[in-house]
Amino acid sequence: MRRMSLSRRTLLRGTGTAIALPLLDAMIPAMTASAATAAAPEKLKRLGYIYVPMGYSPQQWTPQGDTLDQLPSSLQPLEAVKDQLTVITNTDLKNAYPGSHATSNSTFLSAARAKRTESSDYRSGTTVDQIAARHIGQNSQLPSLELSMDLLSTVGQCDNGYACVYQNSLSWASPTQPLPSEAHPRLVFESLFGEGGTPEQMAQARRKRSSLLDLVTQEIQRIKKRVGASDRNKIDGYLDSIREVERRIQLAESNASDNPLPDLDRPVGVPASYAEHAKLMFDLQRLAFQGDITRVVSFQLAREASTRTYPEIGVPDPHHPISHHGHDPKKLEKLAKINQYHVSLFADFLKSLADTPEGNGTLLDHTLYMYGSGMGDSDAHDHTDLPILVAGGAAGGMKGGRHLAFNETTPLSNVHLTLLNQVGVPLETFADSTGTIDNLFDPVTLN
């Protein structure tokens, strides 16, 4: 009637490390209403933000009609998860004007006007991820996680009189405190699962251990004796995922070390392939959510004004020049290919969340992600009609399979406010918001 339960905060402890466990049946006391346990949807809310730079090609992005029965080419990779996807069009960022790459990035999560300066007296606004972290992240190991794909932060003046910090930092803890992001998978992994220290100390620790999980083997066996078969399978699956991420990081380190022509801008341990690097960063987000290590994530898939090329999809041209397309059909086609490529990486991540059971549903059910750009028409540096996707959140009543096109231009801050409210942040306004989006979620009745 009332079996022994484990705390949601149970950790596997070993020398110099502690690994959080995923949600197990043993963490939910028998004969207890789910609304009062760790499985309750309102206790499992997580919020993530994915940023892509330099706008989009609307013709290949915007669905026809108000359903997602037929996805346009740039969104086709999302076919398998479209029932948990809403495409939102006709939003804007008024405070990003005058149009620039710097303000596209800095305003995306803050909806605040960036101070025009090339010096250290920069100023923007507290971003929504950090507001969420203060409400839902304080009981987790890391209140928030800031990630990116670009390993080097640029300095000085980057765009039209704006300091580079506006393009380097997606998240701001306060109007004057930009947060650095981490792009090195090994450093992210060790912040989640291993000890800190200097790079030299961490390298020495890596040499002393063959695997993180080897340090907690006895603790794993002890915990598995206390739980049922279903929980043992969950633990094994979660730990297998951790070991696989370790293996891929170690392989990347080995490949980089053996490379006769090393990329001097790429620290050891970062996959040479953009797609492999991105997938690894997405997998780390999934593990962080699964172990309840963090509940808030921001991830910059590329920096504004990036000159990254994508020859693997037939686009050897730098992204930034392509984005200044001048309505050239060939450039627009290449821009659409880049849009589709970025979306495909996001789609794979969403599918991995949907394939990971948790409580009465999946990780995707209990997680909300917003994906998008602070720029619409990149050729005009326009911050109107932004490409925005909202995914997941079924446990909170998110309506999927829809294209939500506003009749009148609507502040993106309305979307931000709606998502904050949905994860339990009791704000009535945010930045230049004019209200919430009433029909993005259905009311949820808890039994």
Largest sheet features: 7 strands, mixed
> Span from first to last CA?
19 Å
Number of beta strands: 15
Q: Order of SSEs, N→C?
A: EEEEHHEEEHEEHHHHHEHHEEEEEH
Mean pLDDT: 85
Figure out the total of helices: 11
- What would the principal axes of the Cα set say about the shape? globular
Work out the helicity level: 25-40%
Label the structural class.
alpha/beta
Low-confidence runs (pLDDT<50, min 5 residues)?
A: 34-44, 259-267
Beta-strand fraction estimate: 5-15%
Strand order of the largest sheet: 5-10-3-13-14-4-15
| Gyration radius, rounded | 22 Å
Give a description of the structure:
The protein is globular. It starts with 10 loop residues before the first strand and ends in a 25-residue tail after the last helix. The chain is an alpha/beta fold. The chain is 31% helix and 15% strand. Helix 4 packs parallel to helix 8, helix 7 packs antiparallel against helix 8 and helix 8 packs parallel to helix 10. The longest helix is centred in the middle third of the chain and has 30 residues.
Give me the secondary-structure topology.
Blueprint (H helix, E strand, L loop, with lengths): L10 E4 L2 E4 L25 E6 L33 E8 L8 H8 L19 H9 L8 E4 L8 E3 L2 E2 L1 H4 L3 E3 L2 E2 L6 H9 L5 H10 L8 H9 L3 H30 L15 H17 L5 E5 L18 H5 L5 H26 L2 E2 L2 E2 L4 E6 L15 E5 L9 E10 H11 L25
Helix pairs in contact: 4-8, 7-8, 8-10
